[in-house]
Each structure stands twice: as structure tokens, then as C-alpha cells.
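Sample pair:
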Amino acid sequence: MSQTSSTRIAFIGGGNMASAIIGGLIARGLPAAQITVVEPFEAARTALKAKFGIDALPAASDALAGVDLVVWAVKPQTFKDAAAPVAAYTANALHLSVAAGITTDSIALWLGTGRIVRAMPNTPALVGKGMTGLFARAEVNAEGKALIERVIGTTGQFVWVDAEDKLDAVTALSGSGPAYVFLFLEAMTQAGVDMGLSAEQAYQLAVATFQGASELAARSEEPASVLRERVTSKGGTTYAALTHMQANQVPEHFIAAMRKAETRAKELAAEFGK
């Protein structure tokens, strides 16, 4: 964060996602003294003090005046009520929302500014392996986007989308995606136990397989279909498993499930943005 050495950042909400970003910023050299957190729950304030040495505020105050960036890490249903007291001090700030489902039109209305970037992160951000989708309104300039990239980059990778509604697809794919992986891990572990392995052995094998296959895909210039075909000999063990999945339309059901997540993301945006 050398390029943001004088940057002042405020976090509205001090939960897990905020802590992940704060930890990344401090690890990259941003002094904790340049970070302000507003967190209404005492237990969370205590945790922030213990972990980062930050004295979080129970409510918005003039301590927010002059901050360069406000990171909104609040629950969607509390965003609107939290916005008014913060807006009074942050008229000139850039705003980054990691609140699921809240559109930038709603945020702009509540905050009185269009300098807003909306993010859709995922939980691997907690271990620096996150994948975040980003959308910037037209009012955000290149300098603002660069600041957002440095902040979000502390939690993993990111991609920019050129239309806000594409964040619903990001939500369905990577935002909710870790849960899909965990479901597969559960199923693979159970299958391993059913075949005589211990639960610990089966889980270790399953997790390492996902890690290794993902790394292989990330490093390869070839598509997943080619990588799959390479380990699928006709008449072999992998072929037996995959043909069973395909016969039962597992890929089609998986795609349909993700479309359900996309639809729900749109519904939540309509619900929380009122």
C-alpha cells in the first residue's frame, strides 16, 4: 500500500469481511492510525482492538471527516439506516460497498454522491484467496479505481464488470461459489467414508484434490474441458464417474442452481434497495 501511505480509510461495520481487508491493508504497510472503524457491537470493537490495535467507534462522528475512502461492510438490511449519519461527514469521499445486493442507485440516493464502487467478494478473502467482482459508476475516475484495486487486492483477485447487473452473475458464480465447493467436499468425504476411508483421510484427499485441480487450471492455458478429457480414459474409473454424472444431468442441474442464485440476487436488490 505504499501508494496509499497518506490515505485515510473508514470502515462502516467491523465484521469478518472488514477485518479481512483491514488485515491486508496493515500487512501491506498502511498504519492502523489511518483506519477508522464504526462498529455498533461492543464484542466486535473489542476484537478489532485486540487484533489490530484499532479503537473502533460505536457510531459515526466527526472522526470520519476528511477520509478518502469509506468501505461499507454492513448487512444489506442495515445499510440505509447507517448511511445518513455517515453521509454528513463523507461528502467528498470515495465509497466502496461490499454489502450484498444493494445497488449503487440506492447507495447514491442515501449518501448523496455517485462516487461509488460496488464489490461482490467471497469468503476466501478471509485467507487472502478471495475473488471479487467490481463495478464502478461513471463518477469514479481512474485514480479512484486504482485505489479500490489496491484495497481489494489485499484480499486476493478481482475482476471489473462493465454493467452493474453483471454483479448478479458474479454473485451466483464466485460470491456463492465457495458453498458449492464445500457441498462437493461433503459429498466426496462421505463417499470416501462409504468406501472404507476414515473421515479425516477422505476430507484431506478431497480438499487437496480441489486445491491441486484449481491450481492446475489456473496455471494452464488450456480450458477445463481439455484438462478433464486428459484424465478421462474411455472405459476407465474417471469415465465411469463422469458418465454417471452426465447421465443424471449433474452439469445441467448445477447450471440451473446457479441461475437460481442469480435470480435471488436480483430479488434481494429490489427488496433491500427500497
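DSSP finds eleven helices and seven strands in the chain.
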